[in-house]
Amino acid sequence: MLEIITTMSCGSIYSPVHFPKVFHRHSTFTKSRPSCSVTNSSPSSLLINNNYSNGKVAGSKNPKTTSTTSRGALEDAPLKFPNNTVGIIGGVSTGCTLHFLQKLVDLSSQDEGDAIPFIVCSDPIFNINNLPDSRSQSKLILEKLKERRMFLEKGGSCCIVMPCHSLQAWHEEIGTDSSVPFLHISDYVAKELKEASLKPVEAGSNVQIGLLSSDSNICTKFYQDKLQNEGFEVIYPDRATMDHAVLPAVSAFGRNDMIGARNLLRIAINVLLVKAVNTIVFASHDLAQILPQDDPLLKNCIDPIESLARHAVRRARSINTQQL
């Protein structure tokens, strides 16, 4: 059975953490069911999934366990990952990182294939309450994000992802000189929409994509630019819908009022559908987790975290894994 042991400082958690079923004691994570130990009390922590198809990892005496290492490993770790490892830079809330891991595991297990190896590099400084409000703070966070990218890169990750909407503002600067693909979440949302060959809902208009976010300034700009570059028209909810449906839905979700959150989000989605949008993008980790998976409205929505995980799995699957 997979077990998770966590030691977290209270200040490092931004919102209620909804641990995915994959991390629950009685859930099956991979075929070999490794044990798992996670610590987040140090300035930086790494979650390394060592469950590989050949059962080996360089420098590990127990290849079937998931291990953690501390901040010093960023400079000196003798780790060398299998060459189909997905490197993950943790987000500003534990929940968004775990949401990505849930999707990564679910998608990689759909074809009964071997689990995708991954490594998570996270730091409590990337906290929603610590997001920069000055140039010096922004520079500090950028430097730390680059450190984590370089660590994952030097370890041999086949690709690196940052499954966090709020940190995407630094994506280009972080990945400028990366020698491995540094996947941007908006690229794969636009790619999947393009591949869907959508037709306008109303004759004579462009294909319209709705964008829902709890922060229209930070988290939607890169989606808007990417979608418009692909020829889509981006539609936002009006101010009244934001104030009376979207933001209250996020607030209700934070209080664990799921009935209220779901009712409010359904209102916001229907407002956009009435405006003849083809698909709605959840540019928010919280919004993407509110509706149950069997809700029919989700057929009209895209979870960018899932899109990112899907393409990370494809990238890892395309790599011819070396025997270590």
TrEMBL record:
Annotated stretches, region: Disordered: 54-76
**Highest taxon listed in the record's lineage:** Eukaryota
Going by the UniProt record, its keywords in alphabetical order are: Isomerase
Q: Pfam families, from UniProt?
A: Asp_Glu_race
- SUPFAM superfamilies this protein is in? Aspartate/glutamate racemase
Q: Where is the composition biased (Polar residues)?
A: 62-71
Example of a GO MF term: amino-acid racemase activity
- What PANTHER family does the record point to? ASPARTATE-GLUTAMATE RACEMASE FAMILY, GLUTAMATE RACEMASE
Protein name stated in the entry: Aspartate racemase
Q: What is the lineage of its organism?
A: Eukaryota, Viridiplantae, Streptophyta, Embryophyta, Tracheophyta
